[in-house]
Specification:
DNA polymerase, domain 1, single chain, alpha/beta, eight-stranded mixed beta sheet, 2 domains, two-stranded parallel ribbon
Length: 295
């Protein structure tokens, strides 16, 4: 069973819950244990490890995090020809349909690495797929940051940013798109596993209609607190969520310290009052997490 802390944040705007974090099990720099210990030091009471297409780091994260650990995963979907990310929270980590799909997309990610390496080799940058596999563990959801690290190690580039801007980013010589679910498939997958589905980082999308059209799908909420959401976006999210009775979530979307060396872990998320509203929704909607909360 899950015991929810009664500790109330000392300040109204103090971050109580960071619900968007990535570890070495996808494209983050730090292990789940390291992230959990950092969150403990920052007095974060609720957190979710939301690695891309994998939940393999959750048990380690839960073991070391002293607060409430919520199951999470970030799924890539294709909607109106754009890469839209949906975060699932509070689902059953042993749900067979969820596990089957995560394993399928893990295989897609590995296949993508072979294709990226071929493109790199074609432009004279020899990187073997096995070199990239050796950088990470077998349970990791492979992605472009792992390719970037291999390029750095081989001396082809000096930084992650250079690797993405010059070679593996959108419209670059070695760019290969991800295999993606449809939006409705991802939402249903999360719901069928006993979770809630949230639109991640709306401030990153190119098309202005995303927020307007997302409400026509059975989405449960929108990520309000995120490093890329500017003030006008925050107002728009609040207007839409209030109008359509959706919930708001938030998190640092932490992968590693940013380009300026700033560590945003635990600096974005929900205050205590917003966490209570989310917790109540998790209970009211009979999620797997909600069924196991001790109030």
């Amino acid at each position: 069973m899950i015991t929810v802390k009664n500790k109330i944040a000392q300040r109204q705007n103090q971050i109580y819950a960071d619900l968007h974090i990535h570890s070495t099990f996808s494209d983050g720099k730090f292990t789940p244990e390291h992230l959990a210990r950092c969150l403990n030091e920052n007095n974060i009471s609720v957190a979710s490890l939301t690695d891309h297409d994998t939940i393999n780091g959750f048990n380690e994260f839960k073991q070391y995090f002293q607060g409430v650990a919520i199951t999470g995963v970030e799924l890539s979907t294709c909607f109106r020809n754009e890469d839209i990310h949906i975060i699932g929270y509070g689902f059953d980590t042993e749900n067979k349909e969820m596990l089957f799909n995560l394993n399928k997309y893990k295989k897609y990610r590995k296949k993508r690495i072979y294709t990226i390496c071929k493109k790199l080799n074609d432009i004279g940058m020899t990187i073997l797929p096995q070199t990239i596999f050796n950088i990470v563990g077998g349970d990791t959801a492979l992605g472009r940051p792992h390719v970037a690290q291999a390029l750095i190690n081989a001396g082809f580039v000096n930084t992650m940013r250079e690797a993405f801007v010059e070679y593996i980013g959108y419209e670059c010589p070695a760019y290969v798109p991800k295999e993606k679910m449809t939006l409705d498939y991802a939402i249903n997958l999360i719901h069928n596993a006993g979770g809630i589905a949230i639109l991640a980082h709306p401030g990153l999308y190119k098309n202005n209609y995303i927020l307007e059209e997302i409400v026509t799908y059975p989405i449960d909420g929108i990520e309000l607190s995120h490093p890329t959401n500017k003030s006008n976006m925050l107002n728009e999210i609040l207007s839409i969520t209030n109008k359509f009775n959706l919930i708001v979530t938030g998190g640092s979307d932490f992968h590693q310290p940013n380009w300026n060396g700033k560590n945003l872990l635990g600096e974005y998320g929900l205050n205590h009052d917003r966490w209570i509203k989310l917790k109540n929704v998790l209970i009211e909607r009979d999620t797997f997490f909600g069924k196991n909360i001790i109030n």
